[in-house]
Amino acid sequence: MLFVFLLGDISHDDCSTFYLIRHAEKIRADKSERNPDLNEKGLLRAQKWRNYFSDKDVSKIYSTNYKRTLKTVQPLAVLNNIEISLYTPSKIDYDDFIRSNIGGNVLVVGHSNTIPDFVNNIIDDKYYDQIDDLNNSNLYVVSMCNSKITHKLIKVN
To answer: Largest CB tally within 10 Å, which of 16, 115, 131, 152?
Structure first.
């Protein structure tokens, strides 16, 4: 009888959900431009992401320090009054990232060559391949609850 009571008392405070996306569509006029802005379609997609995540109770937003990534999540950050935390993909400690976000719903925005690797590192498996350069609709969802990890890829157009 005590065992059943304890099971019913398990807290979900240790559960975390990580949402990972690539930045919205960027201006491609100048191939040498390393920090392009979002194009019209990208600005619309940023609004769509804001709408998509508006009911997800996002508690923290991480972005690389580029115009296209910051502007992708800025509408949601403004809506929810969340400060955007900057990160550098090559310098992130994934164990520390997971530990520091236990219990949260976290949005991470990056790039076609960094987001799949980010997901693979937090699930500890080489599961996802690099994103095609014209694909801005992938949403990776990683849920961690106690010692169970689940993950999925959703296309959001």
So the answer is: 115
Q: Give the per-residue pLDDT at 50.
A: 98
HEC string of the chain equals CHHHHHHHCCCCCCCEEEEEEECCCECCCCCCCCCCCECHHHHHHHHHHHHHHCCCCCCEEEECCCHHHHHHHHHHHHHHCCCEEECCHHHCCHHHHHHHCCCCEEEEEECCCCHHHHHHHHHCCCCCCCCCCCCCCEEEEEEEECCEEEEEEEECC
Domain count of the fold of the chain: 1
Q: Do the domain assignments include residue 38?
A: yes
Give, in degrees to the nearest 5, the angle at Cα 127 between 125 and 133. 130
User: In whole angstroms, what is the distance from residue 58 CA to residue 8 CA?
Assistant: 26
Per-residue pLDDT tens over the stretch 68-80: 999 999 999 999 9
For residue 146, the model assigns a pLDDT of 85
